[in-house]
Design brief:
With about 200 residues, this protein is mainly β. It has 3 helices and 12 strands. It has a 6-stranded antiparallel barrel. It starts with 7 loop residues before the first strand and ends with a helix.
Length: about 200
């Protein structure tokens, strides 16, 4: 479990094909604290550390993960948002993020709004019930608040700090992003659907 507060932006050092997926080697400043079997959210996808050295850690992405997320787009040098698992002594400063990406979206527009940037993301319309104004959504593992919603699109406002300290500043119109909808909202929608409401 995560909070959607990105700890740092790491760098993909290598991408290697493996049977049924890919190995990703990622550099980070917290390498000295990493251990095998640790869960780390990489662009919002919960992955398991399988090995590490003094400079980087290795995670494996199976084909299913590559199909359902934007991790298949990563290459050597790609910046990635990193967050280690929530611990009991850590404040939940964003919202509950599982690292289980629901779908990918496409950045449709990036525009200035005073000091903030507004990013509009298009997503598959089958997920429309999971987006509500002022509700929470995770984009590439970043806990954000929905500023505006419309049919199969939503807009989030990005403060300068978030822009500077995440990989959002590498996104352009047309970029693919991982989306995880609020888990509590998903449970509520399912509950109501099962009762025909």
């Amino acid at each position: 479990m995560f909070t959607g507060i990105v700890e740092e932006v790491g760098t993909v050092e290598s991408v290697k094909e493996m049977k049924g997926g890919r190995d990703l080697a990622i550099s980070a400043t917290f390498i000295s604290e990493v251990h095998v079997d640790e869960s780390i959210a990489v662009n919002g996808v919960c992955l398991t550390v399988v090995s590490f050295d003094s400079e980087k850690f290795l995670v494996q992405c199976v084909d299913e993960t590559l199909r359902k997320t934007s991790l298949g787009d990563l290459k050597k040098g790609s910046p990635v948002n990193l967050e280690r698992s929530l611990t009991l002594d850590k404040a939940v400063e964003g919202h509950i993020v599982q690292g289980h990406v629901d779908t990918t979206g496409i950045v449709k527009k990036i525009e200035k709004d005073g000091a903030d940037l507004l990013i509009t993301v298009e997503y598959p319309d089958e997920f429309e019930d999971y987006i509500v104004g002022r509700g929470s959504v995770a984009i590439d593992g970043i806990s954000l608040t929905v500023a505006h919603e419309q049919y199969n699109q939503f807009t989030v406002a990005i403060i300068p700090y978030t822009w500077d300290h995440t990989n959002l500043n590498s996104k352009k119109e047309g970029s693919s992003v991982n989306i995880e909808f609020d888990v509590f909202g998903k449970y509520i929608v399912k509950y109501l659907q099962k009762r025909g409401l």
